[in-house]
Amino acid sequence: MNIKQKGLLIVLSGPSGVGKGTVRKELFKHVDNLKYSISMTTRPMRPGEENGKDYYFVTKDEFIKRIEKGKFLEHAQFVGNFYGTPLDKIEDCINNGDDMLLEIEVNGATQVRHKLPEAVLIFLVPPSKKDLYERLKSRGTEDEEVIQARIQKADSEFPEARFYDYIVVNDKVEDAAKRILEIINAEHSKRIRVYDEYLKILNK
Amino acid sequence: MNIKQKGLLIVLSGPSGVGKGTVRKELFKHVDNLKYSISMTTRPMRPGEENGKDYYFVTKDEFIKRIEKGKFLEHAQFVGNFYGTPLDKIEDCINNGDDMLLEIEVNGATQVRHKLPEAVLIFLVPPSKKDLYERLKSRGTEDEEVIQARIQKADSEFPEARFYDYIVVNDKVEDAAKRILEIINAEHSKRIRVYDEYLKILNK
Predict the structure, then answer these.
(1) Fewer CB in 10 Å around end: N or C, chain B?
(2) How far is the C-alpha of A188 from the C-alpha of A197, rounded, in Å?
(3) Rounded to an integer, what distance in angstroms lies between the CA atom of residue B126 and that of residue B140?
(4) Which residues of chain B are within 8 Å of residue A126 when distances are taken between CB atoms?
(5) Which chain B residues in 27-66 lie under 8 Å from chain A, judged by CB atoms?
(6) Could you give the count of Cα atoms lying within 13 Å of B39 in the half-sphere of its Cβ?
(7) Interface touch B185/A179, C-beta < 8 Å
(8) Looking at chain A from residue 88 to 127, which residues have their Cβ under 8 Å from any Cβ of chain B?
(9) Cβ of A169 and B127 within 8 Å?
(10) How far apart are CA A65 and CA A67, in angstroms?
(11) What does each of the 204 residues of chain B score in pLDDT, given as a tens digit?
(12) Is residue A48 part of a domain?
């Protein structure tokens, strides 16, 4: 039994190429009360991706219009493409007591941290830098210039871990997903989140 | 994979009669890398209890000698009996990278919090006060006067939850134990505990 509380906003981030998407998909096999915030992007759809499932794929004009209307919790630009988190639905979800997971780039996570300090920030890391470089090179969907840009981006992102609540190693996808699930469950028992409600249920 | 770190000192406490011992025993069915700090007491052994397993049972003279020699991390007195946590082995265990669990009374937990602020404090609570009163009455091993003393003690302990890191409801023993296990695992991913070591492994 969880003591009643607002939903959690879980931010899953980490350096470029660490495997955030894979871990997130594994995590969602094992939860049924966690909602996923689908990001919006202007980057081209990759093979196997679906609009409205992996991302909302929109044009740059459309994206810029939405920025101007304040419709993003956070947004970022990388290698010529925009990525953003639609604001609507997130507040509703949280206030309704449901958890929501955002899987976003490091820059975006920094914006969320400033706007919603009660968010739970999880930084996914590779077992080593070398391991991540290998993953980026073997992905095979991008040319050498893009790979080098992603390596440089990853290098600049590693120290950002210091602003996060948790650091989870992605050595095995299943283990990383399990660890994140445990973090979410543990956060629901945090005294700071449940103390007021605890005093109420006690006197029932 | 956990990033290398010191062991955790987990303090399981909560109001008198909430079921700390039962939850602790359930928890230990599901862990193999958690050590249990056996408390020392001067209270009489209950049916089914074993010396050196449930408690170290000693005389009051022996207990007072140990207090004078500074051999307790914490100690407390309740209904005429002493309870304490032997200090030796705890520091060794933690520094060796192993987790240790203390199951102690609220007064003792307060002492641990002051001496070892990095300890993880978990406050076990009943689903309601009424539920706890029923448990105390149905335990049947103590007379009415002792029951009333425990109820009064429990009432004074409920608000102490505000000093703890986590509040876990003991509605079902299995669920409470599972939640505690998740808290322990999540704590091992806390950025504050692993950041220095994370920087080292990255560069390997």
Answers:
(1) C
(2) 12
(3) 19
(4) 202
(5) none
(6) 25
(7) yes
(8) 122-123, 125-127
(9) no
(10) 5
(11) 788 889 999 999 999 889 999 999 999 999 988 999 988 999 999 999 999 988 999 999 999 999 999 999 999 887 899 989 988 879 888 989 999 999 988 888 888 988 888 999 999 999 999 999 888 887 666 688 888 888 898 899 999 999 999 999 999 999 999 999 999 999 999 999 999 889 888 777
(12) no
Tokens of A107: 């820059």
Task: Indicate whether B1 belongs to any domain.
Answer: no
Report ipTM (2 d.p.): 0.86
**Does residue B4 form part of some domain?**
no
The one-letter amino acid code at A115 reads K
CA distance A123 to B195: 11
CATH number at B107 reads 3.40.50.300
DSSP notation for A163-186: GSSEEEE-SSHHHHHHHHHHHHHH
User: Within 13 Å, how many C-alpha atoms sit on residue A190's CB side?
Assistant: 18
- A130 vs B contacts (CB less than 8 Å): 204
Burial B34-49 (b: 16+ CB within 10 A, else e): bbbbbbbbbeeeeeee
Chain B residue closest to A174 (CA)?
B1
Q: Does the model's pTM come out above 0.80? A: yes
Distance from CA of A148 to the nearest CA of B (A): 18
Burial zone of B197 (CB within 10 Å; 0-12 exposed, 13-18 middle, 19+ buried): middle
pLDDT in tens, B68-119: 999 999 998 878 999 899 888 798 889 899 999 999 888 888 889 888 889 9
> Which residues constitute the domain of residue B87?
9-202
Beta strands in B9-71 (DSSP E): 9-13, 34-37, 40-41, 56-57
In angstroms, what CA-CA distances link B135 with A198, B15, B150, B201?
19, 12, 11, 49
As a 3-state breakdown, chain B gives helix, strand, coil percent values, each rounded to 5, of: 45, 20, 35
User: What residues in B contact A11, CB-CB < 8 Å?
Assistant: none
How many Cβ pairs closer than 8 A exist between chain A and B?
A: 105
- The total domain count for chain A is 1
Tell me whether residue B3 is in a domain.
no
B80, with CB counted inside 10 A (0-12, 13-18, 19+), is: exposed
CB within 8 A of B149, min separation 6: which ones? B79
Q: How far is B120 from chain A (nearest CA, A)?
A: 11
